[in-house]
Amino acid sequence: MSIELEPWRGVAPVDVVIYCPKCGKQHLDQGEFLTRVHRKHLCEHTPEDSPENPKTGCGHLWVPFEYATRGVLEVIRPEDS
Ligand SMILES: [Zn+2]
Ligand SMILES: [Zn+2]
Description:
Layout: E1 14-16, E2 18-19, E3 26-27, E4 41-42, E5 61-62, E6 69-71
Parallel strand pairs: 1-6
Antiparallel strand pairs: 2-3, 4-5
The structure holds zinc ion (2 copies).
One zinc ion (ZN) is lined by residues 20, 22-23, 25, 43, 57-58, 60.
């Protein structure tokens, strides 16, 4: 585990709906990335990807926001009950 003194790392990640700016694939953080605080996201293959689904990850790395985010299917707002 590396020690990086970046202020955004001390803040809980914000759930966001993000799409790869290069290929348009929705970015979903799963597994270890759900708990790993990160700001830079990698467009990668996800379990939903299948040979019939051409939208597989393109390997693009990008920073959608200046703070830590977590790519989710949809943002659940507590007030939307
Ligand atoms: Zn990510
Ligand atoms: Zn992509």
